[in-house]
Design a protein that fits this description.
single chain; alpha/beta; Rossmann fold; 5-stranded parallel β-sheet; binds 4'-phosphopantetheine
Length: 160
């Protein structure tokens, strides 16, 4: 059984994340999308809201589950019996941070392999940070977040 964890903040989920989920799903038997509980980071959406939005988006996909985790990613991955960590890389600018994280995770748990996937080019500039910024200024979030979640995300980010 090939199991991968796709970890992240998902604050909020973007079309880039959704693209990666669908690519990763094709590679494994089980994909666990995992939202980090990070008390030291302020967020626009609670972990529960982020999990709920991801679950709605994923819908009835038998291979994909959505959950949250505390603490070290490698410990969570081991608890799930995972062999792989999936991360999306959009541009060269993502590389340094991802490289450091992958090597550190390898040091902590050599049996876990980090796999990098590239989303479609049209999502290469899409990030949760920019979604939050654009949403907070009332900008158009089409093409950035899933259509079914757009209104909810826009409302929250614009202060509603
Ligand atoms: O979406 P993000 O914020 O880029 O995701 C970062 C995440 C959640 C993958 C990373 O912060 C993480 O794995 N945190 C858990 C704590 C941990 O394991 N830290 C050591 C990483 S080398």
């Amino acid at each position: 059984m090939r199991t991968a964890i796709y970890p992240g903040s998902f604050d909020p989920v973007t079309l880039g994340h959704w693209d990666i989920i669908q690519r990763a799903e094709r590679l494994v038997d089980q994909l666990v999308v995992a939202v980090l509980h990070n008390p030291s980071k302020t967020s626009a959406f609670t972990v529960e809201e982020r999990v709920a939005m991801l679950r709605e988006l994923v819908g009835e996909r038998p291979k994909v589950t959505v959950t949250s985790f505390h603490g070290l990613l490698v410990d969570f991955a081991k608890s799930q019996g995972a062999q792989f960590i999936v991360r999306g890389v959009r541009a060269f600018s993502d590389f340094e941070y991802e490289f450091q994280m992958a090597l550190m995770n390898r040091k902590l748990a050599p049996e876990l392999e980090t796999v990098f996937l590239m989303p479609k080019e049209k999502y290469s500039a899409v990030s949760s940070r920019l979604v939050r910024e654009i949403g907070s200024m009332g900008g158009n979030l089409s093409d950035l977040v899933p259509a079914t979640l757009r209104e909810r995300i826009a409302e929250r980010l614009s202060g509603g």
